[in-house]
Amino acid sequence: MFRMLCICLLAGTWLTQAETDVRRDATVEAVQRVMPSVVNVATETVLQVHDPIEQLFRDFFDPYYRRRGPNTQHSLGSGVIIDEEGYVLTNFHVVNRASRVWVRLFDGREYECEKISGTSLTDVALLKIKTRKDEKFTAVKFAEDDDLLLGETVLALGNPFGLGGSVSRGILSSKSRRPVTENEALDVMDWLQTDAAINPGNSGGPLINLRGELIGISVAIYREGQGIGFAIPVKRIATAMSDIYSPEELDSLWFGARVRPGTSPLQVASVQLESPAGKAGLRAGDLILHVNGKAPRSFMEFIRQLRDIKDQEDLVLSTQRANEKRKVTFKLLPEKNFFNAELVRKRIGATLQEMTPDLAEGLGLNRRGLLVSSVDRGSAAGDAELQRGMLITSIDGQAVADVRTAAKRLYTKAKGDKVVVDVIMPRHRGAFLQYFQGRAELTIR
């Protein structure tokens, strides 16, 4: 009887093993968890071609000539959904010049997207899927900052060329080799290195660990070395998101603090001391538990909660600092009262003017930016050789089309900080006026 019992127990063990699929390991589980968040990113870019023959046709055959379809080119990359409302993270270089952007999900659904913001310095861009009412999406989970193990298994996911999900597996070969430097373009020293295969169609896709957490965004391959790929670390992604889509980017109301995405509860990354948040006592490192009595489930939900706050309405934040819980109550202030042309002049010594359609037409420019109308002698702008008539198109890699945005960029700078501006410069060649692109570095005084 003892022998029969042993046989029955062994048979039960064999049955359990047979029912367990040995293929379903940690890699498969992580892929199945994250793949619904991975998207293919397609773009359409209208090519601006200045052709004398084409202009001749326009002069003689308009409006019939306008019916011709525009010259376009398409780009394909990948991205990852970071919020259930449909916010997508990808590389800035994938969508930078696009006139239209749309994504295809793992299950085949397609949506057009709105470009929220991005920066060439970090090569991170944020998109928003144009959703139907009450539609939700599967979002990836962020890993903690610096929670990286050298040699751990990592997975590069993508949806290249609209062909469906792809996965490559490797190890984390090297961590980011350089500490975070504000307003400095990323290079190889800032990236994670992996031997997981990354092809051009995977650019912008997630690099994850075996927990299914986002540790980076795939960005490049090293053509000189076989099997070497790079990704932007999640720590730098979170910093970039705080910069390009922060609470202070509200509808003309000033909050004055930046919150780090990916943490739970959300953590304050930095505070402008003269801002409403700063004067109310909010400080870097504080945890945000509730907004007007409701706990934000994600960074993007926190942004939406703040956007619901009206002018002159109280904002009540429940926070925690170390072991102390406290409430801060304050009002958001109109930005126009603080972020204006006078602030810009105080920081760099130049008066900037917003481009109007009539002004752009008169100058023969089709670019957005801020026109330099005067430069103070001995100022930062003067030392950098900015001149009247130049058009500033970006500050530290981020596009500027209005004085308020420029003032907000400059307000965060301390005395002695460097600021890089991209400019379009007019040059007279005989009877002709030509424009050239350039770059200048200013030192805040």
What report would you give on this structure?
A hairpin with a 3-residue loop joins strand 2 and strand 3. Strands 1-2-3-6-5-4 form a six-stranded antiparallel β-barrel. A six-stranded antiparallel barrel has the order 8-9-10-13-12-11. Strands 21, 22, 23, 24, 25 and 26 form a six-stranded antiparallel beta sheet that branches. The protein has helices at residues 2-19, 26-34, 52-61, 92-95, 234-244, 276-279, 299-307, 341-348, 357-363, 380-383, 403-411, and strands at residues 38-46, 72-83, 87-91, 100-105, 110-119, 124-129, 141-142, 153-158, 166-174, 192-194, 206-208, 213-221, 229-233, 253-254, 257-260, 266-271, 287-291, 314-321, 324-331, 333-334, 350-354, 370-375, 391-395, 398-399, 418-429, 432-443. The protein has 445 residues and is α+β, with helices and mostly antiparallel strands. The radius of gyration is 26 Å and the shape is globular. It folds into four domains: 32-129, Thrombin, subunit H; 141-239, Trypsin-like serine proteases (Thrombin, subunit H); 246-335, PDZ domain (Pdz3 Domain, Roll), CATH 2.30.42; 339-443, Roll (Pdz3 Domain). Helix 8 (341-348) packs across helix 11.
